[in-house]
Amino acid sequence: MFTCRNQSCGAEWALSDVVIKNEGQGLLFRCPMCGARNYVTRNDADDGTATYEQVTEIPPRGTR
């Protein structure tokens, strides 16, 4: 499950609900509800499948 880090949104999404892509700043998905950028990391399993984990170390925009 991924959670939109935009404070006013906070929607939760499954991997099948989001599109993960690189917009030039690393892997991310845009929240389908509010469009906020949410960063992820990709991990490749031994069997070749990819899994994604949401990055929480980067503060949401406007909280620095």
Summarize the structure.
The chain is mostly beta strands and 64 residues long. The protein is built from no helices and 6 strands.
Number of domains: 1
- Counting H and I runs of at least 4 residues, what is the number of helices? 0
Q: What share of residues is helical? A: under 10%
Oligomeric state of shown chains: single chain
Kindly report the spatial arrangement of strands forming the biggest sheet: 3-4-5-6
Which of globular, elongated, flat, extended, rod-shaped describes the shape?
A: globular
The secondary-structure class comes to mainly beta
Overall pLDDT level:
90
Distance separating the two termini: 25 Å
Indicate the proportion of strand residues: 35-45%
* Strand runs, count: 6
The gyration radius over C-alpha positions equals 12 Å
Biggest beta sheet attributes: 4 strands, antiparallel
What is the succession of H and E elements? EEEEEE
Residue windows where pLDDT falls under 50 for at least 5 positions? none
